[in-house]
Amino acid sequence: MKFACAVCRTDFAERPESGQSVCRGCGMRYAHGPDFLSYEFDSLLFERFKHNFLLNKVLNNNAFVSYHFLKEGSLSLAERSDVSEFKQYIESYARNGALLDIGCGILPLPGYLQFAEPDRFELFGLDPLDDHGFQGMRIVGCSEFTPFAGEQFDTIVYATSLDHVCSLKYTIAETYRILKLNGRVIVWMGDRSTSLLRRFRNWLVTPLRNLVKGYRTDKYVVFPNLTVMYVPDGAVDPFHSYSENPDMVSALMKHAGLRLVNKSQKNRDQVFLCFEKPPLSA
């Protein structure tokens, strides 16, 4: 695996087994471990996407809380039927070799990566939440600026994580850059597409309907165990900044140069997509 600076793309001449390093090209700082790498990605996101960064930071904080207090609802648990179905989808469409799970969370190994033939893949996980327990190479970073040289991965996976990024456009462009020719991108997402008229109605009516004693009750989500999360302005729920739309994602993937190989939609919560990076002559 070839690592490169997430900012200036300078190759890591020598990645230390553990400790700190500074990019000789731009001065970006990195922390290293035998199976761990982190960098100061928050500053990159804040500088480039200030508005989206502020919102996403709050939503990521909610996600961190959910891992600790809403464990039974995690979409990474192996015993869930939808997780098992996505694992099977990955096994059917993934290319053998280096696999990067973007948005891997803080579990040692998400259920959708617990493969029947684990030797097919060399696992890498990337997530903004700081954790070192991943059973593979763990990157604490962001999808918009990744610390890899170009064309390194055979498969890149987004398991309900593509709607957690600051910039979908930058994320998809970066995915294309680090994916090998003929490599595959495999996505699990939902379908929350609604009409423009319905969105306008919700924007106009919801605040008035839920205004109670000076604040809006719809801005708070109460879970069965009485964990309470706040939905900030600009978010659609405690974890997501926009409503997922598979057609929009497919259009952005196509614009970036990726072609759709397969789409499987079981319901509005289970849309599985597979894209491929074709050879330049294709």
Question: Care to describe what's here?
Answer:
The chain is an alpha/beta fold. It has a domain at 41-192 and 244-276: Vaccinia Virus protein VP39 (Rossmann fold, 3-Layer(aba) Sandwich), CATH 3.40.50.150. It is 27% helix and 26% strand. The strands form three sheets. Strands 1-2-3-6-5-4-7-8-14-13 form a ten-stranded mixed β-sheet, with helices on both faces. A hairpin with a 5-residue loop joins β11 (220-222) and β12. α1 (41-48) crosses α2 (50-69). The longest helix is centred in the N-terminal third of the chain and has 20 residues, at 50-69.
Provide keyphrases for this structure.
282 residues, alpha/beta, Rossmann fold, 10-stranded mixed β-sheet
